[in-house]
Structures are given as C-alpha cells and as structure tokens.
Amino acid sequence: MTDRTMDRAELTALLAEQWEAIAALVADLDENRWRTPTRLPGWTVFDVVAHVVGTESWLLGEKPPPHDPMREKTDVRSLPHVRNETAVLNEIWVDRLRPLPGARLLDLFREVTDRRLAALREMDDAAWTTPTVSPIGQVPYGRFMRVRLFDCWMHELDIADALGVRVDEGGRRAELAFAEFAGSMPRVVAKLGKAPVGSRIGFALTGALPQTLCIAVDERASYVDAFDGPADVEITMDSGLFVRLGGGRRQAADHLDEIAITGDEELGGRLVRHLAFTL
C-alpha cells in the first residue's frame, strides 16, 4: 500500500506551495532586511534562502558557483557550527551566493525551484521509490522529498521569526513536515533526554498542530496509540514551541512559563531541556 505521506503528486504540490511561501516572505525586503540575523548560527535571512537555493541546485546536479578571487576565501570547515560534510557543502553554497543582492537571489530562488518542480513532475513511480542518499541515510526518493518539505518549512519559520512576522503554521504542508520531525522524538527522549526504560511520556501539543504524542520507552522507545495507565509525565506546550525546541531554535529555559509539566517533574524538565536534535 502506498504511504500517503509520501504520495508523489501531493508532496510535489506541497513543495511548490512551500517554496512560494518562502518567496512571499522575502519578496518586498530591502537589502538591510535581507541581512537580518536568524537564530541559525552565522546565517541571515539571505543565507537561509541561499541555503535552499544551494540544496535544490545540488539536487539538479549543479555545483556551487566558483569562488570570487576578489573576495577573501572562507574556511567553512573552521566554522564552529559545521560538524559534517553536508554542513560543509551548505556553507560553501551560502558563502558563494552572499555577494548577490537580495532581489537577484530571489530571482535565482524562483528559477531553481521552478526547475526542481518540473523535474519532480516528470519523475515516474520507479524513480520516486528508488533508494537515495539523504541527510537521514539511504531512503526512497519520496521520503527524501518529505525531508526537504520539513527542512524548507522550518526555514520558513526561521525567516518569519527573524523578520518578526507571523505565518500560518498549520495545514497539510505543516502536518507532513511535522510528521518528519516527530519521527525522531522517541529516539530523542530516550537518547538525549535519558528517559528510563519503562517510562511513559506524553506530549500534549496545542496551537496550530494540536495532538498528543504518546511515547513508551521499553527495549527501545516508540510511539503507541495510548498508554495502559497514567503517563509518568505529560508535557503541554504549543506545537510551534515544540518544533523550535526540537530544531534548536529556542531554549526551554527561556519559555518555562509556556510549558506545563505534570507527573515526574524532574524527568519532564530534563526532557524539555534536551529536545534539540537538528539545527
């Protein structure tokens, strides 16, 4: 049976919607606003958009622009937030695109994402299911595109937060992006939060993506439909805050008045302090 969360036509349409949402956020920015810092280390709004341009260009088989010999060359491997080869490639793309004015970057963003959409629409089912190297290992190409939706959705939030504007954080696009994000949570609570074997953890999320996540930690941590008794701890917060904590964009210590913990408060406090698994 086809996994509807990786349906080719739907994901392609949602990626088109996601890329247009990013373009709309930056369409009227002056050059100063383009260079607004975000919560991503070393990156401005311009850099976030450049990162998306770089990744989608790479997926088209393209290489970063050559280094301008008139600019000092950046040793991207020396940057403290660069921890792997994927990050190295990301930083090279961003660095090479930085000399462009924001308006030109937006033109490039639209041109590259249009070509990516054309490529996705031309794919057949065999290509969509072919195992492909991705940031989460070798997965079917369709799963990689759900990762791309999540990444671009998170970057829409990064841009909106930096610019101080609100965007709609719900809807089908957000649901699929959140599904990709939430898939890592059982491992996060067990490995990073060190939830003990036998614990039952509930996240009651409010806001744009209301839902309850039930995680049982046994030999391995996994989602369950419901617990057979009371949860050891239930943590209530807005879904947007949850995503930003998991993405390393916020620190729980700065939002304790927005987080309610019932049950084992020590365990709950440790979990919310150790939700970050991606940045």
From TrEMBL:
Record InterPro entries: DinB/YfiT-like (IPR034660), Maleyloyr_isom (IPR017517), MDMPI_C-term_domain (IPR010872), MDMPI_metal-binding (IPR024344)
Protein name: Maleylpyruvate isomerase family mycothiol-dependent enzyme
Residue ranges annotated for the Mycothiol-dependent maleylpyruvate isomerase metal-binding domain, each copy included: 15-160
Tagged with keyword Isomerase: yes
Organism per entry: Nocardia xishanensis
One Pfam short name: MDMPI_N
Signal sequence region: none
Domain MDMPI C-terminal positions: 175-267
Keyword flag Mitochondrion: no
